[in-house]
Amino acid sequence: MLPLQQQLTGMLVGVLTAVVLFSTANAQHGGWGYSSDNGPATWPNNYPNWCNGQKQSPIDVQSKSAVQKSFPALNFKGFDTPPADAQMRIKNNGHAIQVDLLSKTGKTDNYQISGGGLPGTYNVLQFHFHWGSEHTVNGKRYDAEMHVVTWNSKYPTASAASTVTPDGFAVLSVLLEATSQTANPGMQNIVSQLSNVANKGMNYTYPTSFSVNSLFPADKANYWRYMGSLTTPKCNEVVVWTIFKTSLKISQDQINALKTSCYFNSAGDQDQQQLNNNYRTTNPLNGRTVFDSSNTSGVPQLAPTVLALVIAVLSSTALQL
Ligand SMILES: *[C@@H]1O[C@H](CO)[C@@H](O)[C@H](O)[C@H]1NC(C)=O
Ligand SMILES: *[C@@H]1O[C@H](CO)[C@@H](O)[C@H](O)[C@H]1NC(C)=O
Ligand SMILES: [Zn+2]
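Above: the input record for the complex with 2-acetamido-2-deoxy-beta-D-glucopyranose. Below: its predicted structure, written as tokens.
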């Protein structure tokens, strides 16, 4: 070989090695996403602890198999009226659009949830959106899903809580359905700022905080409950899930805005990919129970009355025999 050819070959080998090392590093360190080369199918291999576990989320909720269970009422603190020192910041984290619930004075208990059979009082960190939905119900995928991420206040920090099975985190899930003719006012707080968070790393602090409750359905007493995981690597199996049965109705324009306004990439990246279909596929239950809170207060108590009548008739018949 001529010296020049040797040099070129050496350079080529060097470049190829660098490329291989870089892609390996990329796949293993924060390189996950939703495309075929880094999407959900690759997570169990790339993040075996926990994405390859037995209690993974999301799942398909099969409503007929859910076990009825009565829970005490869920309590929400700070959801209706924003706390005085609340500060909301929307951002594109490269995987989803997220709103961080911050405090100007560093409080962690501005927004909390408790009750509802939750094993403690949980501090709310943030909420974010997946479109389409991650959980499906009887095989149906909704247009989008909001996750409100909270951590058990009995642990010192959110980070400490994030590794504690089974009660470190609790996530509230609201399914979104584009069936409304008019824009949902709560959702409009998100949609109106999408242009400010088009690329990964971009963020915008709201001058005035809005009501988190504006993104919830009116009925928060009926939900499904099961034990699962974070739906993104490392898929920590630390989550008490609450999925509200009543969906939030948004408009087709609002879902279209979610699908077309943002990118997975940082500004200036070559080959921009639209931030869309950022959901993990469903995972097997593996023997877990899904509970159905089935709160029927306020619903006419027809069924028990009919049942009582049937029993009365049957017993009187039995007595006559
Ligand atoms: C049941 O629903 C009613 C009406 O929404 C509510 O007032 C009550 O607190 C709920 N009870 C539980 C246990 O969630
Ligand atoms: C928000 O954006 C600013 C300006 O680009 C940036 O300096 C800052 O690091 C971002 N903050 C977060 C939390 O992403
Ligand atoms: Zn999520």
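Notes for the reader.
The helical segments are 3-28, 43-46, 48-51, 158-161, 185-191, 252-261, 302-320.
The CA atoms of residues 50 and 235 lie 5 Å apart.
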